[in-house]
Amino acid sequence: MPNRDLFDDIIEALRRRQLNGMSAAELDSANAGAFFNPVPAAPPAGQSASAQAGVPGISPSEPAMTVVVPKAGTAPPAPFAPPGPAVSAPPAATADRVGGAGDLAALAAIVRDCTGCSLHRTRTNSVFGEGSGGAELMFIGEAPGFHEDQAGRPFVGPAGQLLDKMIAAMQFSRESVYIANVAKCRPPGNRNPEDDEAAACLPYLNRQIDLIRPRILVLLGAVPLVRLLGKTGITNLHGHWFEYRGIPTMCTFHPSYLLRSPARKKEAWEDLQQVMKRLGKDPQETMKKMSRGN
Ligand code: SF4
């Protein structure tokens, strides 16, 4: 079936309870087979070609945490590449204004008219982010693309549609989580945010995180990995736990990369299952309950 993928299968299984009566072993087999059997999809038009591309390493303007918890049964990741050259500190005026925003609405109003970096000259809309202000799960991407710039909303293009499926497979709704980006304005041509742009915009994201205080952050792709944690190497570091601003943080692949490389969806789903378990949503237990008709 065209455009059908791993996350469609998971969602359909959840919806139809088609695993009724399966044993635990059969459930495991289903996970390894039907659930982890991606169908290649054509690269979407208008998507960032750089979601997983190497980006210049930086030292975030605020120190990130560096704890890494290896996945059970796996070797620790290779030593991290040292952070790249430091970027300039965020403009003092921006930091002052951000600190004065007492809630998300006030912060969004500041972002709407922000001229803190050159990206404001080419944007159609700034894209603040959206979701529940009380979300326990927050996803962080890199920057708006064409569709997001037009709509003023995050992840509404083809990559956003896949992210919606990933969220649904995790048994959350888009409305119950929070979705934001490192940069709030679209870089021309969907390139990665430059050092000065990311540095100028990071105080907004940090303030969002501090206001929402989710239980878990999920970084989507290489850009938030390097901008928030100062790390490179998403291929090796996805699926490992970090911490940012005191919050457990999981890194996984960006949905636009998964659209281009559907074979990676299996690994992304494994990463997301770790997040589910940490939030008390054990995928296997859920499937077993479904099989019992609970
Ligand atoms: Fe302001 Fe961020 Fe947009 Fe730059 S990208 S203009 S810092 S909101």
What does this structure look like?
- 39% of the residues lie in helices and 9% in strands.
- The protein is an alpha/beta fold.
- The chain has a six-stranded mixed beta sheet, sandwiched between helices.
- Iron/sulfur cluster binds at residues 111, 114-117, 119-120, 126, 183-185, 197, 200-201.
Radius of gyration: 19 Å
Largest sheet: 6 strands, mixed
Order of helices and strands: HHHHEEHHEHEHHEEHHH
Briefly note the structural class of the backbone: alpha/beta
Unreliably modeled segments: 27-70, 72-89
Oligomer classification: single chain
Strand content: 5-15%
State the end-to-end CA separation: 30 Å
State the helical fraction.
25-40%
Query: What overall form do the CA principal axes indicate?
Result: globular
- Average the pLDDT over all residues and give the rounded result: 79
Task: Tell me the total number of β-strands.
Answer: 6
Count of alpha and pi helical runs: 12
Ligands: iron/sulfur cluster
| Strand order of the biggest β-sheet | 1-3-2-4-6-5
Features:
294 residues; alpha/beta; 12 helices; 6 strands; 39% helix; binds iron/sulfur cluster
Q: Layout of helices and strands, plus pairs?
A:
Elements: H1 6-16, H2 24-32, H3 92-99, H4 104-112, E1 130-131, E2 137-141, H5 146-151, H6 158-169, E3 178-181, H7 195-212, E4 216-220, H8 222-229, H9 234-237, E5 241-244, E6 247-252, H10 255-260, H11 265-278, H12 283-291
Parallel strand pairs: 2-3, 2-4, 4-6
Antiparallel strand pairs: 1-3, 5-6
The protein binds iron/sulfur cluster.
Iron/sulfur cluster (SF4) binds at residues 111, 114-117, 119-120, 126, 183-185, 197, 200-201.
